[in-house]
Amino acid sequence: MRVLQIILMIVSIGGSTVFGQDLPPAKVVVSLVTQEVIFENRPFIGRLYYDTSSQVSSEVSGLVEIVAVREGELVKKDAPMIRLNTELLDKEIDVNLVRLEQIELRINHAEKNYQRLENLYYKEGVSEKVYEDALYTYQDNLKEKQVAELELKKLLIKLEKSIIKAPYEGVVMRKNVDSGDWVQQGDEVVRIGSTNDLFVKVPIAETLLQFVEIGREVVVEIKAFARELRGVIEVIDPLADAKTKNVFIKVRIPAQADIAENMSATVFLPVSAKKRLSIIPRDALVKVQGQDFVYTIKEGKAAILPVNIVTFLGDRVGADNPDLAEGMQVVIEGNERLRPDQPVVVDGES
Known about the structure:
Elements: H1 2-12, E1 26-32, E2 34-50, E3 53-57, E4 62-67, E5 74-75, E6 80-84, H2 87-122, H3 128-161, E7 163-165, E8 170-175, E9 182-183, E10 188-194, E11 198-204, E12 217-222, E13 227-236, E14 247-253, E15 264-281, E16 285-288, E17 291-298, E18 301-306, E19 309-313, E20 316-319, E21 329-333, E22 344-349
Parallel strand pairs: 1-22
Antiparallel strand pairs: 1-21, 2-11, 2-15, 3-10, 4-6, 4-9, 5-8, 6-7, 8-10, 11-14, 12-13, 12-15, 13-14, 15-20, 16-17, 17-18, 19-20
Helix pairs in contact: 2-3
């Protein structure tokens, strides 16, 4: 009864025009109704979250010199995010390099002295003690060089750690420091979420699990940006809610540059066994008082039909109306101004 009332309202629009008889022919573009055996689906509201996130901490103490990222910014793996001041560290490294040069000089001198005394020792030209002292001095200098080299490596590692890098490709979710701040070893400086691990977590009734399949592609809508994309069902949470008995489905979606964690998203999940449905383009839909309709062509005139949508397929929808026969023409361009019984001229088919 409601659909009939809406149709009568549509045909009355236009003042004295009755059933489009006095309206000029309209040029339209049409598409053909197809039929497919697919699942009926329904929209479910979920929340966006990063399945992988890290609290990036400083491995060394120091004064923050540069903060190279902002909250919400996308970063590549190993991209510098925070730089600590290394002025004192650079001087320590310079001192260590000079010390190594000094040790190298002592090693060269001790080696020549040791070799000279070794020849004399075997010719009984010097005592065993003098020979052993020279050998000890040479070996001690070699060990001192090893210690200095290890100290230099330690300083170079500290220099490398003074640049705090992104552990993976992701989005900066929180920045905890600014230039001029002092950080201790272990302090959290940035929280980052992996853009390659962006999911929608959706609660559904346990009775619908029979229709959910891991690896199935589903339509996801992010209404904040009027954005539609494809996701993949990847995880069925093994723990149901104790009160509602709802089970969480985790749907992986492609990386998004402007997403905030905990934003809402709509996921269209299967809720029935497969059935034969009529498939029509979304562009064919016209909405009147919340009800969906399509215009078809009958004997050269526009005819309006209600549509009961049971499945959303991106830029197409599936309907279970018996009147929507396979091969039927539906108007996808020019339908926004059509009236029932208005003459039409087909100007193309998509």
